[in-house]
Design a protein that fits this description.
Layout: H1 2-20, E1 28-35, E2 45-52, E3 60-64, H2 69-80, E4 84-93, E5 98-106, H3 107-112, E6 116-123, E7 129-135, H4 149-153, E8 159-166, H5 175-191, H6 200-221, H7 223-226
Parallel strand pairs: 6-8
Antiparallel strand pairs: 1-2, 1-4, 2-3, 4-5, 6-7
Helix pairs in contact: 1-5
């Protein structure tokens, strides 16, 4: 039985190490749509396109639409009313698969940052996208009701950085040391070298405890003997 356990642990360690060295590469395309109309929150319009040419290196090209005067005013209204700026990312994989992710940030922070944001693309071990998150350096954006026409007029194009984040492996247990310890204990038992240094109660508690319980029960049920 012990040899079966040791064999299982060895195979598990090899599997974990193999997964931690899994390599993949490929490309994917991300279409970005944002919701700016405060009166039609479910209406998303095209913001731009991101092409990640290498999942391993995270190399990406970004092409985004300039904001029209009407869209700038929509963003200003979202910011002044402390609403969320919502972004929808449509991912098209190398194999033609499609998936959609929704993320958001404070419209006020986005306006104060002059449309500078970061797009985080999270991947699993196979290179599939498991999450897309937009972040904005909030800083001390204060009260967006003080936004001026000059602040809004400079909001032309988004300045976006894209970062690809493969999922991180959990810490690998030190299985080799554990297996070696089991082997040493087994060999010591076979040679009769293992010594039991436990105290008397630790060795024989399974015999002592029942006797104590029986004595207590006997005393409780026979009060005349106590007299």
């Amino acid at each position: 039985m012990r040899r079966l356990v040791i064999g299982f642990l060895c195979n598990l360690m090899l599997l974990i190490n193999a997964q931690s060295h899994l390599e993949y590469d490929g490309w994917l395309n991300i279409e970005l749509y944002h919701a700016l109309d405060i009166h039609e929150p479910q209406k998303f319009t095209l913001r731009g396109n991101v092409t990640i040419t290498s999942l391993n290196t995270g190399a990406a090209t970004v092409s985004q639409e300039s904001l029209s005067a009407h869209e700038r005013n929509q963003l200003r209204q979202l910011a002044e009313e402390n609403r969320l700026y919502r972004l929808e990312a449509h991912v098209v994989g190398e194999d033609g698969s499609r998936s959609k992710f929704l993320t958001s940030s404070k419209a006020c922070a986005l306006a104060k940052s002059q449309l500078t944001d970061v797009l985080w693309v999270s991947l699993d071990q196979t290179g599939s996208v498991i999450g897309i998150t937009q972040s904005v350096n909030h800083g001390n954006f204060g009260d967006c009701r003080d936004l001026t026409n000059r602040d809004i007029d400079v909001l032309d194009e988004f300045n976006t950085d894209v970062y690809v984040k493969p999922i991180e492996n959990a810490p690998v247990p030190d299985t080799a040391s554990f297996i070696q310890k089991l082997e040493r204990e087994r060999e010591a038992r076979e040679r009769g070298e293992t010594k039991d240094n436990r105290g008397l109660f630790a060795k024989y508690w399974m015999y002592i405890v029942p006797v104590v319980i029986l004595v207590l029960i006997s005393g409780a049920t026979n009060p005349e003997a106590q007299r």
